[in-house]
């Protein structure tokens, strides 16, 4: 007998015997529910035997039998009603526990998010893929037969999604392509560091989604609830079903603000800001101008995060501005990094350390932000140094720039497409899914060991487009991804260390050293970031013009 906990209210189990009932009571359960019809198996005890044993130890007992593989809508309603009426916690069982888990999933569907239901059942060891459409449809069997179908469906209309749609259109104009994204606005997120540094206006980093979807590509303005890769289907909110011949998944990642206690309540006030949000980046600049004396904290959570250099970029630009204002000597700058190094590619560290020393910033490694008290202006960190006991420290601040913890989106983490850590599981060279041959992924959501940056997506989009078209034409993938990513580290106003690297930290500079030496701070790299890259993003990358991003080719095998 094994109790597999799904929620505080219920655990499920395979078939139990009367002898197990005493142990169930000892575990703190107050009721037992049987979802297996009597007589289903020769060695199966009857419900009456289980009920008798339950009564003997003071447990409630309910019989709600369901035929295997035939869970009806009304069964789920009855299960939900019984769950409300029975003393909890409840121990439910059937032959394997799957029927009980299915009934719970459908009963909760009207009030819980599909991703939360799928996560709870997955954690208990039960796969609800077979009833995902019903879960998305509020626990009811769908009756809508108006499904749409496309040659290529792209999930996500961010940098990766629009770029790959445009690259596909430019390669094979006749493809019937749909982009799925619920957002009205598309953001140039690499510009938010510059907004926080007082260089860009926030408005220049936003355009309407409709203005960027390539001509002839359908825009399905909806959120994705689940995937059915074995049926080549994407389930949208509201249980609409979109079929595909080939699928590209690139919805970005989730900024998990709620993972830090008290953070959401204080963002945008009490001196707490973040360049990771469009509406907060201007507040960073406001604080830099207001706070001219005191302690400034800059936090970095555990990896992976999008643009691993962004937390320290905020620190350098703020310090550069305080230096220009003549108040740097009055500022106590603290970099609170959950990791153990300043930057993951060692070649760039010497140049960065020069600025750490110039700004007299303290580096605090293995410090992970876990809570914020905004009104008190205090931040608490968990300190996990190697071979030392874990402790917590609370630090006062006058200003704090927060980089939030980041994960794959909920609907990705619980999907059949994800690896054990929740990221889309791809071949790191071709960006094709490891299990499903007609699925590709790019951008922040996939699990290749590259930096999660817009520059990486700029290079990945043509590679995915090339390999997808190869597949349509019956060929093996011919484009390979070398892990390229770029992080323009804004070390001072007017100079940048242009970090460009691939898998394993291999340096992959785009320019000769005499043009831009990426390991040193240069004015040329600043001009690239400030004046050249934004139009390259809007007018080239998002329009299928693959400037400096033509795929590296290999011979088809």
TrEMBL record:
Its cofactor is FAD. Coiled coil: none annotated. It is an enzyme of class 3 (hydrolase). Its EC number is 3.-.-.-. InterPro entries: BLH_phosphatase-like (IPR005939), FAD/NAD-bd_sf (IPR036188), FAD/NAD-binding_dom (IPR023753), Prot-tyrosine_phosphatase-like (IPR029021), Sulphide_quinone_reductase (IPR015904). Keywords: FAD, Flavoprotein, Hydrolase, Oxidoreductase, Quinone, Transit peptide. The keyword Transit peptide applies. One of its GO terms (molecular function) is hydrolase activity. GO terms for biological process: sulfide oxidation, using sulfide:quinone oxidoreductase. Residues 5-110 form the Beta-lactamase hydrolase-like protein phosphatase-like domain. PANTHER family: SULFIDE:QUINONE OXIDOREDUCTASE, SULFIDE:QUINONE OXIDOREDUCTASE, MITOCHONDRIAL. This is Beta-lactamase hydrolase-like protein. It comes from Shimia thalassica.
